[in-house]
Amino acid sequence: MAKITLSNLRHSYMPNPKGSEDFALKEIDLDWQDGGAYALLGPSGCGKSTLLNIISGLLVPSEGRILFDGKDVTDLPPDQRNIAQVFQFPVIYDTMTVRENLAFPLRNRGVAEGKIAERVAEIAAMLEVEEMLDTRASHLSPDNKQKISMGRGLVRDDVNVVMFDEPLTVIDPHLKWKLRSKLKELHQRVRATMIYVTHDQTEALTFADQVVVMQDGEIVQIGTPVELFERPQHTFVGHFIGSPGMNVLPADEGQGGVTVEGHPITLEGKITGNGGAAQVGIRPEFVSLAKTGLPGRVRKVSDIGRHSVLEAMVGETSIKAVIDGPVPAQGEAVHLAFRADQTRLYRDGWIATEVGA
User: Is the N or the C terminus of the chain less surrounded, counting Cβ atoms within 10 Å?
Assistant: First the structure.
């Protein structure tokens, strides 16, 4: 296990990049502590797989350094970084049994047979696959194949980091929650440094202690799942995390404060800085129906089980609210109230208010 440090990291697939737009990864400085569970979260093309490949040694960055426990490994090949990687598609040998698949990484490194048997039994118990140890891998279901692929990454106890590159992509949706829970349990038991790459917010938020949200080759926020939900530092984070995502409303600033569609808005605290396109951000969970507030008209109501998502139009602006209990019908006039301590100003996407200031 290792602390991983990324220092002044940038990468371009072009031989002579000229501007920031030519870089798949813009400047990244990041520390991952030894034994932590981390997720790289973002849409396709945001740079998360590029970053994972640089950490693993499959790519050499255009600029910057990678350090494991303070040791510079930037120019070391993958086999000298002491890492394990689990990919989207299970990497196992179909002609081998489950036992032989789990033993292979250890046998390949000359580990004593007694130690191999002990470690395989331990990992098999963690994965709950003891009954299939002598089954050929070709006979396994896709989710069990991916379990064995995970086991091959975990069977070595000397790895610096275990990396998962969208490991649940090919798994049936009704089985994903089982593997997510199993992976979280495995981390709590083995305490290895783990990095999980995904575009799925549920996978990232249920697995990781710290989530790194990426957009267009940049890190826009690092935080716990609670921090990302409750106080997005960028409108992209608010929109990408949450279902439905954060309301991002065009706003106007003046000496009297901030308005949306001409109506004054109370923010969480003091506005910082100046300049840039102003937007008010508030999650639908903190918008409620009230007797007074922003006047609007119900455009749509979606019943999603435990609550309803109401969409109302305030002037030309659509605002969503999560409502428990009865909801007005489509076309009815309503007033919407924003919870002040969850209402923030953003400028050019970045947060521009201070808590309680």
Answer: C
